[in-house]
Amino acid sequence: MSMAELRVGLIGLGMMGRHHARVVREVDGLTLVAVADANGDPHGVAQGLPVLQNVAELIDAGIDMAVCAVPTGMHEEVGLALAEAGVHTLIEKPIAHSVEAGTKLVEAFAANGVIGAVGHIERYNPALQSLRERIANGDLGDVYQIATRRQGPFPARIADVGVVKDLATHDIDLTAWLAQSEYTHVTAQVALRSGRAHEDMVAATGRLANGTITNHLVNWLSPMKERLTVVTGEKGAFVADTLTADLTFYANGVVTTEWDSVANFRGVSEGDMTRYAIVKREPLRTEHEKFRDAVLGESQEIVTLQEGLNTLRTAEKVLATASQQLGAC
């Protein structure tokens, strides 16, 4: 695949920045030409490139697109500078630290005619990509419920936000995307159990515009790691395990019975189980390829800034309803 090389700059050289640097170097049509982080390069990703100090220096390096992997609190400042400089930018999730900041980013990218995307990487998990195609194809019939479980130990990276903005945003985004419908209602309970400043456990329920009901259990207090999405509908249930990228379908069995009292019961029975063989590409690589294609005007399979903002707005509502119930969070 031959194309003009896009000059890419990366700002933020932490845990995610390290992975972005590796993938940008692997993807056709992208060349990593500049890296920046005021705190230096702890993982040695520069590989001979000078480690620049800030976004202004990154822009001065003459870049076509940027990856913004700085802490969430800095997304607004860095993103606005890139938008004003006309640089297409992939911003790590969540889009920003507040709905107000996210709104400014959406407006700035639109006003400057540049493409922005949010790194909600779970969308590019092969199991979920396959699941979305199958739902859209009608394999499930009407979708009734989407339930997710994202549980595990505390991550060994700096978290300037709680579990809702750090992790539950994945589930909010992938749920709205799978169902192709936005949230209209959400309510939640949160807990602070580890002595940190932010919530570390949440149980949220919601409803989408199309009537699908949702449930999300998210924490970083579990000794076992779990990343599960269960979509239940008219014809059965899909279970996607995004740790292993496996997708399983449990069909509703169709059993006819002549016994009247049983025949009147409108329930479901257990049918065949199918496990799908899926090509397991690295989600981050797919994410970068889709962003590259969007910059080149070839496709639009990105998480738009507006979608990122919708997700953040839902996350804020989760926190607002939870804090009302706690009295003060």
TrEMBL record:
GO terms for molecular function: nucleotide binding. This is Dehydrogenase. Residues 129-238 form the GFO/IDH/MocA-like oxidoreductase domain. Residues 6-120 form the Gfo/Idh/MocA-like oxidoreductase N-terminal domain.
